[in-house]
Structures are given as structure tokens and as C-alpha cells.
Design brief:
Elements: H1 3-28, H2 32-43, H3 58-78, H4 81-86, H5 88-95, H6 97-112, H7 118-127, H8 133-143, H9 147-176, H10 182-213, H11 219-240, H12 245-258, H13 264-288, H14 292-296, H15 300-321, H16 329-337, H17 343-358, H18 364-393, E1 403-406, H19 410-421, E2 426-430, H20 433-441, E3 445-448, H21 454-460, E4 467-470, H22 475-489, E5 493-496, H23 506-511, E6 514-515, H24 523-531, E7 535-541, H25 553-558, E8 562-569, E9 572-575, E10 587-593, H26 598-603, H27 611-621, E11 628-629
Parallel strand pairs: 1-2, 1-4, 2-3, 4-5, 5-6
Antiparallel strand pairs: 7-10, 7-11, 8-9, 8-10
Length: about 650
């Protein structure tokens, strides 16, 4: 075979292995970075010997540089300044004071435990001060912690990458130029950060201005224009001052996000897909180039060095940097636990190993091995345990409470009252002024606006809400709204009303959107029932049942006489998505249809449910516990003047 075909085959295998690892990670619900490392090592020289990254030569360094620029730009593009303001103090401290603590603590540990010379020890420490969005981002998608913690970790990962990379270059320059003083070191760091920030801000502003006026360009071409622009800015910054391009990429993303260009959602989706590809390829190649023997040759001292970095230095850093924040101890513990190292550490360490060897310094290979050991230990230990730790601390976003409801119909307002009575915040959004007035008359918080207005959604605080429910009469509109919210804000639970036969309901499966109340009902019909005062609100406690035993509620649902609304599990209130979600001890809140004529209802005592239905319901349910009718004071009354 020709050399060109061999190289082509290497690229094909790398891409296929990387995407396969991503798919397996999604399927197994574990961080994909874990599988990327496993696949890369298995395909490398210490595995099956299929991949040989050294064949790329200088091309690998170029590929790493361009891919990291895309990754950091995407990280900056996803940063939400409003959310960052909530953790700005802690974030600033982690990027500045935290970097210094990690540098000093990691250097001391590497010197005394791994027995590295002081210069090499601090060079190692400078390489591992970064966490990196390439690892933190995918990890948080799997773990889904509460928004404040996620924002802090994401912000740290994006902002500390260029700071750490530039710091490592400055430390390397100091080692190679022993005459450099402390002032020269500090000025080198500040100069690179400043140049990168200025070029990134100017470039991001120009791109934002151009995208706003370039209406003649297609959306696809605009995405590619931004890609070309960020690579151009990165190259220009690198030519002005080495390693300043990383800061340029981050700042350009942040500035472009601030423009709120119309195509921003599509741009972020494109960049997200490109980032997944870049991360997949880079981790496979760098892991394949790793020598396991060189890691074991380091000895136990190196393992203890990484352990100290993870379990001593990081907790001290987080404790000091978040001392004056409003984070509780559980949130601080999780931030201290999650600090996996990523692609920037790996790529810069590989480059430094080559430079040190060429300059005649010993320790280049050892630094690379210790950095990869740090990546392996942090990714495997913290990555695989993060979800369990978050659940034990009860800081997952699944624990988030409250709801945003689209549509101010009688059914929506009743649902809002139920949330409100349980002490949870609830907001209704509707464009109809009359419907909004009806909600205000019932002391409900309502916004007269489109549910697509990002500013309104951020003002509501949708990122901290537990559920988003789209309950208008139009199923297609509900699906579009739910899909947009899922992509933009990632709330823990997204539900929408749509018919099973809706032409676009495949969107629901792709976007993990649930049918509200289990589906199979009509919003119009139940709204009319409420307006005609033909409903009774009730609840029942679910008892134990055999495996695969179906709940006979379905018979009443199919008959249009019964609508399951909410599940109360311990202190959490959840929208019913399916009766299969019900567990023993859950409290099910529901609506019953009472079709009796108004005159007969008045004669029998108003809003009481039919006697026959209440008598037969326990038999139909076949449950150990009987349903209980709710007194009007226990749950919201049905509005009589809706």
C-alpha cells in the first residue's frame, strides 16, 4: 500500500473509533471520554497496534491546535453571562487563586512524591491546572447536576484552558531560559492573555456585526464562515504572540454569543457537532500514542502525586475559592470532586516532551507519562463516580422543583395551582392578553410573551426550574417549543401535549420529550369539562404491585373519564408521563370527569364526584389502598368564572 493510503486508513479508523466510543457512551450512560481513552489505548501500540499517530508527523500538532481552537470557541459560545454572574466570584477565584494553588501544590507533590526536579515538577503542575470543556461538558450532560454547579464547572473548564496552556508555555520558557526573572515570567503571561483577549474581542465583534447584516448568506454558509473566522483569528493571534490563540478563541465565542444573532441556535448546534468530532479524533490519537510501560515505570510515587492533586490540592483550592459564595457544602464537595483533565493537558504535554528532548533536557517523556496518568486517574475515578456522588449529595437537576407552563388554559391554570399549593414556583407564558388576565385573577405568575423569547425565559429562571410543559391546543407548536427549550436550556423534565398521530412527533423521541399526562387525551375536551364544572379533583396513594402488573387506570383514561396529572414522590412533584412511572408509596393526583347535568350536581351538593364512580373505583384499580377524595381546601378548587 502507498503511504497516502496508509494515512487515509489511519484517519478513517480514528474517526470510526471515536464516534463509536461516543455512541457507546450514550447507550451505556457513562462519560464518553472514558471509552475514548479505552478505545485509543486498545488501538495503539500497547494494544492491537492498529493506530500509529507518529505517522502523522508534524500534521498531528497542527490538527491538535486547530481542533482545540474549535473546542474552546464552542465553550465560549455556550457560556451564559447572566448565569456566570451568579457564580462570578467563585469562578474568578478558581481561575486565578485556584490556578496558583494547583501550581504550587502540584509542584510540591511531584517533587517530593514523584521525585521530579523542581523545574520539571512545576512544569508538570502547570500542565494539570486545567480541567477543560472537552471532559467537563460531556460529563455534566450525563450527570445533570443543578444549574449553579454546572455553570461554575463549565465556566472554569472554558476559561482556565487558555490560562493554563499559556502558564505552561511561560514555565517552559523559564526552564529553557534560566536567566528569566519573576517579572519577565509574569509579563509574558499577562501579555499573551491580553493580546489573545483583544484579538478575540475585536474578531468576535466583527463577526457578529457581519452576520447581522449578511442576510444574503445561507445559514450553512454562515456556520462555515464562523469556522473560517475563528481559525483565522487563532492563526493571527498565534503569529502575533505564541499561545495567545487559545485565549482568542474563548473570548471570540463569548463576544459572539453576546450579539444574540438570529442564527445563534443553529450555529451552536453546528459547533457542538464539530466539537464532538474534534474531541473524538484527538483523544483516540493521543491515547493511541500513549505508552503504558512508561506510566508504570514512574513508580508508586507518581500515583500518590495524582492522588494528592485530586484529594488534597483540589479540595483546598475549592474551599478557599468558594469561601464567600452562597454554595452549600454539598455543591462545594461536588465541585471539589470533579476536576478531570482533558485534551489541552494531553496535547501540550506531548508537545513539551518533544521540545525538552530536542533541547537536551531529561524528563520530557516522564512529564508526558505523568500527565497522561493524571488524565486517566481523574477521568476514570471522577468521571465514573460523578453521577453516584451527585445522587448521594442530592444535587442533581432532577431534584429541581417548579415548572414553566406554556398556555393559560383552564387545565394549565389548574396544574399551576397544584404546583403552587405544594410550595413550588410556577410561571405561565401565553401571548393572549385575556388568558393572561384569567391567570392573574387566580393569583398566578404569568408573562404575556412568546415562549421562544430567550430573554423572557432567562428572566423567569427556566434553567433552575424542574419542568417545562407546553400545553397549548396545537400539538405541533407544543413539540417545536419543547424541542427548542430542550436544546437551549436542558431542563430535567420536558413534556408537551401532542397527538400520537402528529406528523412531527418523532421530534419527541429524538429530544426526549414526554407526552404530558401520558398522552391519549384532548386538551380542548378537558378544558371544556373544567369550564362546565364537570370535573372532580382527587388523589390516591399507590400500593405495592407485582412486576409487570398494569394499573387498571388505563381503562378509565381510554374512556375519557380519568386524567392523571401529577405524581408526588417524597417532596418532589412530577408531571405524569406514563402510568409505568408510578411506584409504591407515590401519591397520584388526578381529575375525574363528572358528566351529570348542572341542576343534578347542584341538588347533590355541588362539585362532589358521582357516588357510583367512587364506589367502583377501588375495584377497578385493584390496589391495596383505596383512592381518597380531596376536600376543596386540600387541593385547588376548580375556577367557576373561567
Amino acid at each position: 500500500m502507498t503511504d497516502s493510503f496508509e494515512l487515509t486508513l489511519q484517519i478513517i479508523i480514528t474517526v470510526f473509533a471515536g464516534i463509536s466510543a461516543q455512541v457507546c457512551g450514550e447507550f451505556l450512560k457513562i462519560p464518553s471520554i472514558v471509552l475514548l481513552l479505552i478505545f485509543g489505548i486498545a488501538l495503539g501500540g500497547d494494544g492491537f497496534g492498529i493506530l500509529h499517530p507518529s505517522e502523522f508527523g508534524i500534521g498531528l500538532e497542527v490538527l491538535v491546535a486547530l481542533a482545540v481552537a474549535v473546542i474552546l470557541f464552542e465553550g465560549g459560545l455556550n457560556l451564559k453571562l447572566k448565569e456566570l454572574n451568579e457564580v462570578s466570584g467563585s469562578l474568578r477565584n478558581l481561575v486565578t487563586i485556584g490556578t496558583l494553588i494547583t501550581l504550587v501544590g502540584g509542584g510540591i507533590a511531584a517533587h517530593y512524591l514523584a521525585e521530579f526536579p523542581w523545574a520539571i515538577a512545576f512544569l508538570y503542575a502547570s500542565l494539570v491546572v486545567v480541567t477543560g470543556p472537552t471532559v467537563v461538558g460531556p460529563l455534566l450532560k450525563q450527570v445533570a447536576v443543578d444549574r449553579k454547579v454546572a455553570t461554575l464547572l463549565e465556566g472554569e473548564g472554558v476559561l482556565i484552558d487558555p490560562v493554563g496552556a499559556i502558564l505552561a508555555v511561560v514555565v517552559l520558557d523559564t526552564i529553557l531560559n534560566v536567566d528569566a526573572g519573576l517579572g519577565e515570567v509574569a509579563s509574558g503571561l499577562a501579555l499573551r492573555l491580553g493580546i489573545g483577549a483583544i484579538i478575540g474581542a475585536a474578531g468576535g465583534w466583527l463577526m457578529g456585526q457581519f452576520l447581522r447584516v449578511a442576510t444574503f448568506l445561507s445559514e450553512d454558509l454562515k456556520n462555515l464562515l464562523v469556522l473560517a473566522g475563528i481559525w483565522g483569528l487563532f492563526g493571527f493571534a498565534q503569529s502575533v504572540r505564541g499561545e495567545s490563540g487559545l485565549m482568542t478563541a474563548v473570548v471570540a465565542g463569548i463576544v459572539l454569543r453576546a450579539f444574540s444573532i438570529p442564527e445563534e441556535r443553529l450555529l451552536r448546534r453546528f459547533k457542538s457537532q464539530l466539537t464532538v468530532l474534534c474531541v473524538s479524533v484527538l483523544f483516540i490519537l493521543l491515547a493511541a500514542d500513549l505508552s503504558i510501560a512508561s506510566i508504570f515505570a514512574l513508580g508508586w510515587g507518581s500515583f500518590f502525586t495524582v492522588a494528592v492533586l485530586m484529594f488534597v490540592v483540589r479540595p483546598i483550592s475549592v474551599a478557599l475559592c468558594t469561601a464567600n459564595s452562597d454554595l452549600d457544602w454539598k455543591q462545594k464537595f461536588f465541585v471539589a470532586w470533579v476536576a478531570p483533565r482533558g485534551i489541552v493537558s494531553a496535547s501540550v504535554a506531548s508537545l513539551f516532551a518533544i521540545i525538552l528532548t530536542e533541547k537536551g533536557f531529561n524528563g520530557g517523556a516522564s512529564i508526558k507519562a505523568l500527565v497522561f496518568l493524571t488524565i486517566l486517574m481523574t477521568v476514570f475515578i471522577q468521571g465514573l463516580s460523578a453521577k453516584w456522588i451527585a445522587r448521594q449529595l442530592k444535587i442533581t437537576s432532577i431534584e429541581a422543583r417548579g415548572a414553566v407552563i406554556v398556555g393559560s388554559s383552564p387545565l394549565s391554570r389548574l396544574l399551576a395551582q397544584l404546583f403552587q399549593q405544594q410550595g413550588e414556583s410556577v410561571v405561565i407564558i401565553d401571548t393572549d392578553a385575556k388568558a393572561c388576565e384569567a391567570a392573574r385573577a387566580e393569583q398566578l405568575e404569568v408573562y404575556q410573551s412568546s415562549a421562544l423569547d430567550v430573554d423572557v425565559l432567562e428572566e423567569i429562571g427556566i434553567s433552575s426550574m424542574g419542568a417545562f410543559v407546553s400545553l397549548t391546543n396545537n400539538g405541533e407548536v407544543n413539540l417545536v417549543l419543547a424541542q427548542r427549550i430542550m436544546e437551549e436550556f436542558h431542563p430535567p423534565r420536558v413534556a408537551a401535549f401532542f397527538e400520537q398521530g402528529e406528523p412531527d412527533n418523532t421530534i419527541a423521541n429524538k429530544g426526549k420529550i414526554s407526552q404530558v399526562f401520558g398522552g391519549g387525551f384532548s386538551v380542548k375536551v378537558w378544558n371544556q369539562y373544567i369550564l362546565d364544572q364537570q370535573v372532580k379533583l382527587g388523589k390516591t396513594t399507590i400500593g405495592p404491585r407485582e412486576k409487570n402488573q398494569t394499573l387498571p387506570f388505563q381503562t378509565l383514561i381510554d374512556a375519557g373519564e380519568f386524567l392523571p396529572l401529577l405524581i408526588r414522590r417524597q417532596e418532589t412533584l412530577m408531571i405524569v408521563r406514563s402510568l409505568e412511572d408510578l411506584k409504591a408509596e407515590d401519591e397520584l393526583i388526578y381529575l375525574l370527569h363528572d358528566p351529570r347535568p348542572q341542576l343534578l350536581k347542584r341538588l347533590s351538593g355541588g362539585m362532589q364526584a358521582p357516588r357510583l364512580l367512587l364506589e367502583t373505583l377501588p375495584e377497578v384499580e385493584n390496589l391495596p389502598r383505596s383512592p381518597q377524595a380531596i376536600a376543596p381546601t386540600a387541593l385547588p378548587e376548580i375556577p367557576k368564572n373561567s
